[in-house]
Hints:
Layout: H1 5-16, E1 19-23, H2 27-32, H3 39-53, E2 59-62, H4 64-68, H5 71-88, E3 91-98, H6 102-113, E4 122-125, H7 135-144, E5 147-153, H8 160-163, H9 173-185, E6 194-198, H10 205-208, E7 220-222, H11 232-239, E8 246-250, H12 252-255, H13 261-280
Parallel strand pairs: 1-2, 1-8, 2-3, 3-4, 4-5, 5-6, 6-7, 7-8
Helix pairs in contact: 3-5, 3-13, 6-7, 11-13
Bound molecules: orotidine-5'-monophosphate.
Pathway: Pyrimidine metabolism; UMP biosynthesis via de novo pathway; UMP from orotate: step 2/2
Enzyme class: lyase
GO molecular function: orotidine-5'-phosphate decarboxylase activity
Amino acid sequence: xxxxxxxxxxxxxxxxxxxxxxxxxxxxxxxxxxxxxxxxxxxxxxxxxxxxxxxxxxxxxxxxxxxxxxxxxxxxxxxxxxxxxxxxxxxxxxxxxxxxxxxxxxxxxxxxxxxxxxxxxxxxxxxxxxxxxxxxxxxxxxxxxxxxxxxxxxxxxxxxxxxxxxxxxxxxxxxxxxxxxxxxxxxxxxxxxxxxxxxxxxxxxxxxxxxxxxxxxxxxxxxxxxxxxxxxxxxxxxxxxxxxxxxxxxxxxxxxxxxxxxxxxxxxxxxxxxxxxxxxx
Length: 281
Ligand SMILES: O=C(O)c1cc(=O)[nH]c(=O)n1[C@@H]1O[C@H](COP(=O)(O)O)[C@@H](O)[C@H]1O
């Protein structure tokens, strides 16, 4: 791994388009792929996606939950998927969505951005114990050149009850998260290593909450494209002038084309082309 996460991601997006393919081995997808719903099944699933998409997409995002549901052997499978991706030169965002008090966050930092085999190129985290609680993980990620994606406006409808709420300082909570991320990325080029998660499904919320996403100057991971109903065109409305920072994410829509590697590549290519076209407008 050489160079900082933001710079490496920018290079991959330039080469392959602004799409991150999720690796979410849901039980129905395992069945559709003819795989058992066990640790060996999720391992085969994940490694197949990596082998098919390495060199064809900007990055992959293994969803830790679907590996963890098989206990320690599932976690070992996740480690092997991450190792395969690293060997293949494919960037990984480990979707673990961790968040805890600062002293415990230091443990998650070691696990996901330190020396552990669970560390990919970046990790997703939740700031809803307070953005400051993420500090140990942000610091270790910065030291190692890894990336962090902080949940801001999530793609699920329930998220608004927390994220749109106005905090004690008068700012909507999601806006405060965005401004804290912007402070981490100040001065970085082409952009920094601290990204936000902003669902492609959030409609007019960004503008409505007064959030300046362009000022974040970090990658904006946009899940919700495909299975959750958002289209590439929704990205234009949600992201406005911050389109240069968007990394759309899609899992089930791409994965449904497997296990045939050519089918996975075609589905990823179609999604990446649609996203690139929508963001170019
Ligand atoms: O952090 C994420 O990736 C994420 C944040 C969010 O707000 N919404 C969201 O759907 N995700 C993840 O993105 C993936 C979406 O999968 P599909 O709906 O199948 O494309 C899942 O792994 C979710 O956990």
